[in-house]
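Tokens in:
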């Protein structure tokens, strides 16, 4: 997770939101909505106004619905629905561009798919639904908000409006003198920040609805199948990894150990001044080095400390070997799935290695916590920050490893530090 705020929904969580540029962007988004919604509401209003009049007449038994009126309403409604997929196409293109005012996340543009596709695809009707949202719901909400703003401004201006001795209505009450209006004016001033914040909430909600309708998520069935296939690949990889580990540990490593012992015994039987002594010594040393290398490879596949000590103990062992002092806090109760333990171990190992090599930190911390069905791993340091996954493959590889088992990795590393890496892994039994 980067520290840069890219859309209004996140900006609303900032403590100093009212002092940022985001309230003004929210206001610009709402104001530019007005002419678009005003044009779009003409068609539905042409049908809704006579319909409401007819319903009101029937309710009062003064004006029964005539056949021409019924035909007009039916034909008008059909024309509005039929035109919606066509009218909504340019509106959707404009809205995708305009959404950038409050949401900087990219939204793919869509070209003209053909006339038939506008009536036969879900995209066409979702865009039509967005047009009806702008034509019907948005104007009503904007009118309510505008009324609230006018009431609040009336409260603030109450002392000046009552200055000439005339009775002034301030929302739910009336006043005759400026002194009576002062408490209401103070209330109006106190409500201004809430209204300013409320405009941001309204703009964020409208932007979220726009993104949901114009940029629909991937097909849920297809997404579930992709998730299942990824889980199957991870399980297959883990099974193959365990097989390789067993083969190297149970077959290759004992045979190499035996070879090293045989070469050592042969060195004892060969005189030092023999022509074969030197090559035999070199072969013996290479066999020992190769045995050490295989142990390291086996350790890299599945660290022995992870098997013997568990996740908390293995992390403490990594911390003790780090060149930077590391404080470890672990609250992990009960067994964890093997893939979760392995992933968390390598996340801590890679992050502490990055701290030692790149962060310039004097201290680091690791926190392990299991809450419900989720394991949280946090690695912090007091270094100079500025960690960027785009500048290397380490963090990107960790993110891919975490995502492969359904977890997520968040990064906060502003320039000047500190750096926080947070990993959340599902660990349901």
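Residues out:
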């Amino acid at each position: 997770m980067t520290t840069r705020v890219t859309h209004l929904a996140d900006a609303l969580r900032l403590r100093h939101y009212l002092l940022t540029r985001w309230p003004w962007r929210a206001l610009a988004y709402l104001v530019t909505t007005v002419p678009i919604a005003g044009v779009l509401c003409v068609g539905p209003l042409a049908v809704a106004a006579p319909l409401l009049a007819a319903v009101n007449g029937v309710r009062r038994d003064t004006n029964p619905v005539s056949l021409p009126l019924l035909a007009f309403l039916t034909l008008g409604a059909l024309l509005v629905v039929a035109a919606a997929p066509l009218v909504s196409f340019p509106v959707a293109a404009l809205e995708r561009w305009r959404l950038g005012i409050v949401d900087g996340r990219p939204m793919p543009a869509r070209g003209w798919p053909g006339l038939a596709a506008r009536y036969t695809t879900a995209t066409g009707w979702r865009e039509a639904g967005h047009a009806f949202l702008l034509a019907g719901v948005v104007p009503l909400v904007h009118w309510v908000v505008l009324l609230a703003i006018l009431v609040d401004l009336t409260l603030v201006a109450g002392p000046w409006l009552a200055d000439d001795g005339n009775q002034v209505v301030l929302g739910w009450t009336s006043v005759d003198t400026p002194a009576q209006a002062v408490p209401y004016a103070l209330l109006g001033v106190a409500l201004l920040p809430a209204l300013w914040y409320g405009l941001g909430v309204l703009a964020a909600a409208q932007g979220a609805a726009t993104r949901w309708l114009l940029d629909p998520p991937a097909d849920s069935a297809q997404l579930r199948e992709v998730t299942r296939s990824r889980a199957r690949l991870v399980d297959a990889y883990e099974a193959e990894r365990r097989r390789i580990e067993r083969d190297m540990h149970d077959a290759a490593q004992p045979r190499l150990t035996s070879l090293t012992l045989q070469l050592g015994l042969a060195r004892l039987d060969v005189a030092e001044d023999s022509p074969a002594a030197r090559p035999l010594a070199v072969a013996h040393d290479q066999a020992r080095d190769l045995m050490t290398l295989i142990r390291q490879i086996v350790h890299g596949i599945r660290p022995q400390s992870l098997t013997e000590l568990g996740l908390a103990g293995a992390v403490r062992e990594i911390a003790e070997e780090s060149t930077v002092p590391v404080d470890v806090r672990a609250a992990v109760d009960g067994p964890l799935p093997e893939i979760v333990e392995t992933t968390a171990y390598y996340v801590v190992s890679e992050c502490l290695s990055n701290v030692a090599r790149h962060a310039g930190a004097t201290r680091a911390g690791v926190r392990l916590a299991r809450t419900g069905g989720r394991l949280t791993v946090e690695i912090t340091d007091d270094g100079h920050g500025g960690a960027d996954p785009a500048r290397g493959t380490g963090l990107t590889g960790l993110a891919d490893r975490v995502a492969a088992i359904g977890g997520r990795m968040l990064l906060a590393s502003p320039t000047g530090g500190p750096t926080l890496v947070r990993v959340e892994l599902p660990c349901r039994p």
